[in-house]
Design a protein that fits this description.
Strand content: under 5%
Oligomer: single chain
Distance between the termini: 36 Å
Structural class: mainly alpha
Number of strands: 0
Largest sheet: none
Number of helices: 5
Helix content: 55-70%
Number of domains: 1
Order of helices and strands: HHHHH
Shape: elongated
């Protein structure tokens, strides 16, 4: 893909949409869960239906984000290889750079001849 090509724009647009959908669905699940709390507390089947629906709704954009490949290095964009990838969701919700090559989110220039701009390892 060339810098600023329509393909690159579409790749980043899909990433932004998935992240926005994840934020919106998390908010919707929290608000609807609070509103339906009494009904879910009184019925096992309503609770199971709610858990399944919430998991599917949040899982769809989450699947896209977890599998999103960096347009420059083709590595998993939201992974750093560190323990923090396992322990938190902060990279899913707020990361602005590739965990491998530090390409900024939405950056049109994906040429691979750029120098590695990652900081050194933090011990």
């Amino acid at each position: 893909m060339a810098a600023g090509s329509p393909d690159t724009v579409l790749v980043w647009r899909g990433f932004r949409r998935a992240r926005l959908a994840l934020w919106g669905l998390m908010l919707l699940v929290a608000v609807a869960g609070a509103a339906l709390h009494d009904w879910m507390a009184s019925s096992f089947w309503v609770r199971m239906l709610w858990i399944g629906a919430a998991a599917i709704a949040v899982g769809y954009p989450l699947r896209y984000l977890l599998g999103f490949r960096c347009p420059r290095c083709r590595g998993v964009y939201l992974a750093t290889g560190g323990l923090r990838d396992f322990l938190g969701v902060h990279r899913l919700l707020w990361a602005t750079r590739c965990g491998t090559c530090s390409l900024r989110t939405g950056h049109p220039d994906i040429s691979s001849d750029l120098p590695d701009s990652r900081p050194g390892p933090a011990f």
